[in-house]
Amino acid sequence: MVVATSIPAAALFPDVHAVSPSASGERESQSLEVTAGGFEIVARDGYSATSIEEIERRNAAAAPARTAATFINNPASPIQWPFVTGVPLSDDFGPRAAPCSGCSTFHKGLDLIPGEGTQVQAIADGVVRETGSSDTGLGVYAMIDHVVDGQRYTSVYAHMQFGSLQLEAGRPVTVGQAVGTVGDTGQSTGPHLHLELLRNGSDPIDPFAWLQANVQL
Question: Which of 18, 43, 75, 96 gives 49 a disulfide partner, CB atoms 3.0 to 4.6 angstroms apart?
């Protein structure tokens, strides 16, 4: 395993004061299964009816993240995964069959599917380069610049929920800080986080391989 250290954002951005993460114990993950029974809600006395499908959608959005043994996060590491625990993956970095009309045949990132509404966290200290909110492309997204072992990287978090973005361009960010929540905005085929990692701010590399090598366990 390659051990990496994150250079504080202040080393690249003089006005930024980096905050070192404090060591803490492992976080426990809980799960809750919500099952819709064979019932319907009937409108009476001015109350509106709610379909079973809508109830299931709301329950799914409110439920805790789905977990999987895809990776192990360390909340004390200067570099971390975008979620506090391992989550399912739906698409890897590299060549692929385009999953939708207009989608690329080379996937520049990693798709993670912990469930709609799950909090996304910053993978390292840095400074917010750019944010956006759109019905097309990356949807609701944030881009954060980092310096790791003297090398500049940019992490991209895309397709988050409308109204969930917690960052502003030009502001410093610490590892583990909330970025937004998993959504289905922009050019997306379902709720997921599209995570990209750009070396030197523009060259896409495999986020999974890089995080596997750099998150300290």
Answer: 43
Full set of structural domains in the chain with CATH: 53-214 (2.70.70.10)
What is the number of other CB atoms lying within 10 angstroms of the CB of residue 80? 23
> d(Cα 108, Cα 210) in Å, to the nearest integer?
13
**Confidence band for 108, pLDDT divided at 50, 70 and 90:** confident
Distance CA 109, CA 143 (A): 13
Coil/strand/helix, residue 140: strand
Q: Is 213 helix (H, G, I), strand (E, B) or coil?
A: helix
Question: How far apart (Å, rounded) are the C-alpha atoms in residues 157 and 120?
Answer: 8
Is the Cβ–Cβ distance between 120 and 187 less than 8 Å? no
Under a CB-based contact definition with an 8 Å cutoff, are residues 159 and 192 in contact? yes
| Mean pLDDT of the chain, nearest integer | 77
Number of helices (H), then strands (E), in the chain: 2, 12
